[in-house]
Design goal:
By secondary structure, this protein is an all-alpha fold. It has a domain of 37 residues. It is 58% helix and 0% strand. The protein has 3 helices and no strands. It is elongated and about 95 Å long. The N and C termini lie far apart (100 Å). 0% of the residues are buried. It comes from Halocaridina rubra. InterPro entries: Neuro-gated_channel_TM_sf, Neuro_actylchol_rec. This is Glycine receptor subunit alpha-3.
Length: 77
């Protein structure tokens, strides 16, 4: 019986995987991208993003505006 020239690689990498298996996993997807992948069309993705960002920007603008307005009003008095 003939023995192989190179013995099998048995050492584990950082996550318990062999070094050649690390590259086979594929790129990691972020939570944001996996959530956006649920929407089938680009227009639906844009609509969902707009439904979240516009109210947030409006709220931040109102907080900044009214805090500046009220602060300036108190200085004038």
């Amino acid at each position: 019986m003939c023995r192989p020239l190179v013995p099998p690689f048995r050492e584990s990498g950082a996550h318990g995987l062999r070094s050649c298996e690390v590259h086979l996993q594929g790129p990691r997807t972020s939570c944001w991208r996996s959530w956006l992948a649920k929407f089938p069309t680009r227009s639906k993705r844009i609509d969902v993003i707009a439904r979240i960002t516009f109210p947030l920007i409006f709220a931040l603008f109102n907080i900044a505006y009214w805090s500046a307005y009220l602060f300036v009003e108190e200085e004038k008095m």
